[in-house]
Write a structure and sequence with these properties.
binds NADP nicotinamide-adenine-dinucleotide phosphate; about 325 residues; 2 domains; 10 helices; seven-stranded mixed sheet; six-stranded parallel sheet; about 25% helix; alpha/beta; Quinone Oxidoreductase, Chain A, domain 1; Rossmann fold
């Protein structure tokens, strides 16, 4: 048995390439007192990883060159030197892009309640992001129109379904007909606009006949700029992600900011870990909706650690269709 890991080999300028990563082989580590040795089964790929490949100032420090890529995993405990965790437990870890690792930072998860991978998605960080971003910053009221971009994805799919559960009109924005059909037919949104169809403003007006009260922004750029034009008085914009800009060498310059003034819009950034003390509340609510069949969810899976770079590149260019994961074992 040997460990394999993917480290950051170079920082991308523009889009990520496979050459930015390097696969390494090394011995399996031994746990120190208080630690567990974990065999990772699943790795979550998330858009924030693009930011961690950069050394620009952000809300968390970037990965150093030669350091293992960050990421959340689901794994199985092979050996425990921690009284609270036993061999065989399934755990959530922050061990990153590697097959094995030792850590104290684990949370046990219950595979009888939901598939283990769901703790990386709908019942994990993306689900928490949707829950707190919409509830606490979007503050939707029944009857209002909630618009969300990247609507078929890990965060966006939960945002729109929560909006429906909480009595709102849910409008998605997604790339392509297939994703839009999934968003309306499978996830139950009231409408979905294909931003690649070329009539974004007109299509948003048609999908939001009473205007937009809440915009949950996962992408930034031109979509945010256009959406500003269909906002209502006192609309709320949840600035959750800017994936359209993550690989851009020149950030998009928003032209319609005057609507923030004219419509007295409250626009606020959010980072999920600001709510870490309340994760239990979100897990309970999302778990109940899931058990009641009110939350649907899909995954995009690549196989093998060596394909993780391809998976991240696919995610950042919208080729994923659902929560992007890497199957490690
Ligand atoms: N603030 C926080 O704490 C927090 C936490 C988690 C996630 N996020 C952010 O939330 C967003 C969604 O994350 P996720 O994990 O749920 O990913 P995801 O939606 O499952 O996948 C990313 C999606 O972004 C869309 N996309 C990619 N490039 C785009 C572009 N140039 N223009 C418009 N859309 C583009 C693609 O969907 P289409 O094919 O539909 O374009 C792609 O499928 C990301 O911006 C992420 O950084 C923020």
């Amino acid at each position: 048995m040997e460990n394999r890991r993917v480290v950051l080999a170079s920082r991308p300028t523009g889009p990520v390439t496979e050459g930015n990563f390097q696969l390494e082989k090394l011995p399996i580590p031994k746990p120190a007192d208080g630690e567990v040795l974990v065999k990772n089964l699943w790795l979550s790929l998330d858009p924030y990883m693009r930011g961690r490949m950069s050394d620009a100032k952000s809300y968390v420090k970037g990965v150093d060159i030669g350091e293992v890529m960050v990421g959340q995993t689901v794994g199985e405990v092979l050996e425990s030197k921690n009284d609270k965790i036993k061999k065989g437990d399934k755990v959530l870890t922050q061990l990153g892009w590697q097959l094995y690792g030792c850590t104290k930072d684990v949370n046990r998860i219950d595979g009888s309640r939901a598939p283990l991978t769901y703790y990386l998605g709908v019942l994990g960080m993306p689900g928490m992001t949707a829950y707190f971003g919409l509830k606490e910053i979007g503050s939707p009221k029944p009857g209002e129109t909630v618009v969300v971009s990247a609507a078929s994805g890990a965060v966006g799919s939960v945002v729109g379904q929560l909006a429906k559960i909480w009595g709102c009109r849910a409008v998605g924005i997604a790339g392509g007909r297939q994703k839009c059909e999934y968003v309306t037919r499978e996830l139950g949104f009231d409408a979905c606009v294909d931003y690649k169809a070329g009539n974004l403003h007109r299509d948003l007006q048609a999908a939001c006949p009473k205007g937009a009260d809440v915009y949950f922004d996962n992408v930034g750029g031109e979509i945010l700029d256009t959406l500003l034009r269909v906002t209502n008085l006192f609309a709320r914009i949840v600035v959750c992600g800017m994936i359209a800009d993550y690989s851009a060498t020149q950030p998009y310059a928003v032209k319609n900011l005057r609507f923030v003034l004219v419509n007295r819009i409250r626009m606020q950034g959010m980072i999920v870990f600001d709510w870490k003390d309340r994760y239990g509340e979100a897990l309970k609510a999302l778990g109940e909706y899931f058990a009641q069949g009110k939350l649907k969810y899909r995954e995009s899976i690549v196989e093998g650690l060596e394909n993780a770079p391809k998976g991240l590149i696919a995610l950042l260019s919208g080729q994923n269709f659902g929560k992007q994961l890497v199957k490690l074992a």
